[in-house]
Amino acid sequence: MALRMVTGKLRSKWLPRFSAASLLHSHATSFGFKEVQEEEKSRMVGNVFSNVASNYDLMNDLMSAGLHRLWKDRLVSKLNPFPGMKHLDVAGGTGDVAFRILEALNSVKHRAMQDVLEDNLHEETEIFVCDINPNMLNVGKKRALERGLGEDKSLLWVEGDAEALNFKDNSMDGYTIAFGIRNVTHIEKVLAEAYRVLKRGGRFLCLELSHVEAPIFKELYDYYSFSIIPAVGELVAGDRDSYQYLVESIRRFPSQETFASMIADAGFQKVEYENLSGGVVAIHSGLKF
């Protein structure tokens, strides 16, 4: 586990900015290792997640040996939820992150600290789960019912596009996106929207599959990714192509440092990232001042 701060020089207005964001303005974009037209990518990604929605949780457990649960726990611990907060979880259709935020707010520690006023604040807590794919949202709503959260007024499900959010400026205390940003067409638009909807002092947190640095580990990880994961997808979900895309999309995603500079370019300050599991995933964070 490594925590790295991105220095202010990344955003110096006196220096030219050459970041991965500048590569994303063309009319062609990547879909895994393929080059496709921008208007095609959203449809193709939508098809992938419609195909994997019913097996999404099972495949996450199989592909990560259950580690995705620990990674999401770490994400929420860094968020440090508080009663009365307005939070937006983007690409969070299955509810994994939102449920963890609610659990943190309902923890024994929080209950012990809450008095009558704080109880009222808790009633005002709003956690918006936003996803562009209705199939993923349906999985999340079903899971909420199974957890007894179907009537929880704090949990709000919204179908929406991360690149054009239907939320007011300066309306959110926190913004999370887990395993979603690498699937969008324009990363810089997603970051700009995150910055827009956050209040001053609001926190941006992104959990994403990233790039392994240790050479030996990287060779093993590449073999596992390209040889095992698509095969498991075919065996368990009957869908090799979707999981082949998911693996390829990780390799096309910017490096930890490059992505951190993109977050800084979007206006966020105190940008840093933490590698987990040797860089298999990274949590990037930034503050809006």
What would you say this structure looks like, in words?
The protein is α/β, with parallel strands linked by helices and 289 residues long. Helices cover 46% and strands 21% of the residues. It has an 8-stranded mixed beta sheet with strand order 1-9-10-8-7-4-5-6, sandwiched between helices. Strands 2-3 form a two-stranded antiparallel ribbon. Strand 9 (269-276) and strand 10 form a beta hairpin. It starts with a strand and ends with a strand. The relative contact order is 0.17.
In short:
The protein has 289 residues and is of the alpha/beta class.
Order of strands, main sheet, comes to 1-9-10-8-7-4-5-6
Termini distance? 27 Å
Q: Radius of gyration, rounded?
A: 19 Å
Q: The biggest beta sheet, please?
A: 8 strands, mixed
Helix content: 40-55%
Beta-strand percentage? 15-25%
Compute the number of helices: 11
Extended strand count:
10
Order of helical and strand elements: EEEHHHEHHHEHEEHEHHHEE
Write the layout of secondary structure elements.
Blueprint lengths: L1 E4 L22 E4 L2 E4 H15 L3 H9 L2 H13 L6 E5 L5 H10 L2 H6 L2 H9 L1 E6 L2 H13 L8 E5 L12 E7 L8 H11 E12 L5 H23 L2 H13 L3 H10 L3 E8 L4 E7 L2
Parallel strand pairs: 4-5, 4-7, 5-6, 7-8
Antiparallel strand pairs: 1-9, 2-3, 8-10, 9-10
Distinctive features:
single chain, 289 residues, alpha/beta, eight-stranded mixed β-sheet, two-stranded antiparallel ribbon, 11 helices, 46% helix, 21% strand, globular
